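As the next step, I selected for study a record pairing a protein sequence with its backbone structure tokens, which the following lines show:
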Amino acid sequence: LFSVWYSTAMLFPPQARDHYSFFLWDDGKLLFDGDGRPAICPRPSICSEGILQIVLISIARVTAFASYVFMGITFLSKMHVTIHRLSTSYIRTFVPFESLHHFHTFSGKVFASLAVLHTISHYIRYIVRQEVDQLSTRVHISGLCSILAMITVVLCMSSIAKRFKDSIGKFEKRLNSHWLFIVLCVALCFHHVRTKIITLIFFGLWCLDYIYGQVFATYSLDVVELLPLPGDSGVQMLFRNPPGFNPKSGEYVKIQLPWLTHGGKEWHPFSVYLRESTQRGLRNVQGSISKHQAASSSATLDEPLGLSLDAFIRLVLLSDFVSEAIDAPSRLLVEEAREDLSNINRYPTTQVFMCPVGDWTKGLLKDIHEQKQLRACWVRGPYTSPYFVAREFSHLILTASGIGITPALGVMEQYPGFSRTKILVWSTRDANMLKFFAPLIKDAHLAVVFYTGKVKLRPEEVLKISSQGNIYIQQSRPESLPGTIGSIIVQFENFLNLTVAKSIEEVDTRNKASWCVFYCGGSARIKDDLSTFSRKSKVSFEYEMFDW
């Protein structure tokens, strides 16, 4: 608002600032000729005469000043290292660092839209004034280069470009198109002195952050374990944390594998999981379940099999939450409060799970099968993700589809026991992936799995998977995912607060403020459904998409 208001001062008469200096922060340029015709002409490139031309120059000036703000947000929201450092400071109470990627996307689109409107208003004014000579000036040429670079960047990341998956729509090509912003910055430096100063400020800040990340937040990994997941459903990457690399659950890193046959110079983001326990999943897939697990499955799952989801939730509440959370809440919370949940040495290793959904990950899986992989690679980060906000809430509903379960697993192991209520709602069609991750789901107080694979799971397979924890498996899609989540919240709230709410609308708003729904996956439909549900139900919502 301040930027836009500053730009309007030029539209007042010169003497206006003398009388209203508190409101007008620049000299007015509006004059009237002998016939009372208004005119503004501080310099030849923006001379305007008459009402129409003044309206056009007003649009051009206001959109230019407004675009400076959104240009700044676009740059600042991608200062990854700075954002990661500030995300643990008190400033995070005022700035939603975990959601800055959404701000980046929005501000980039607005920045481009304002620039287009700015350009169109100037072109119309040139036509009205018949100033063809303006098209050969430095101002016009630099502006044209800027707008073309900006439109290219926005279009390459739009849904239109995604349709051409085999050519320009590939994620790597669309991401690399972002580097055209350098052309944009250079062109803006020749457009006007003011745009030069503002562009250099924001571009300079971003460059400092980027260089720092390149030099001090990039680590060499000498030994990396790369294993294909069962059924080629993905790749598990495990490495010991190098000195200075201190990731936390709910964050992500960027990986570069220089030895890849294709894409060895590319960096790709992946969520991290810190606790090393996935070998249990591998053994379970291979059919070797321990005697303890077998005994547990026969003792705990003979009853839940065949129950409805509501009945299963009641069983979980009556068994776990009565005996553990209700009878001895202070003991549990004291034990967890004494544990340093952010201890950098808590887990010495980091794991990354990669699903073969793009050319890069498919090529990695192929190289591993062909024994072409080497052990050394690079990791950069860590960086803050939307799941970082989990610390702000008492009750977490972690929804995921496919490999999107990874950040949910990280959050669950970050908050052990009853320090947070952790509910997992996972949709997957890959049986091998389900069996692999089953041992890690045990951290959830309740896990609801919607398995949609073509080949149905056998009863003994369901029994093995469910034996890992409070896992409810439904071999079909939910009638309504928002409805399922609403039902879960209602049952937990009724049990924990001794209420009798029949719907999410009847739950106390103050209690709903302690819940947050998360989603990670590639389904825009699920994200939109959960966003609508959260908005109507007054429950917080965060998401992380990989629908690139």
Observations:
- The first strand starts at residue 31 and ends at 32.
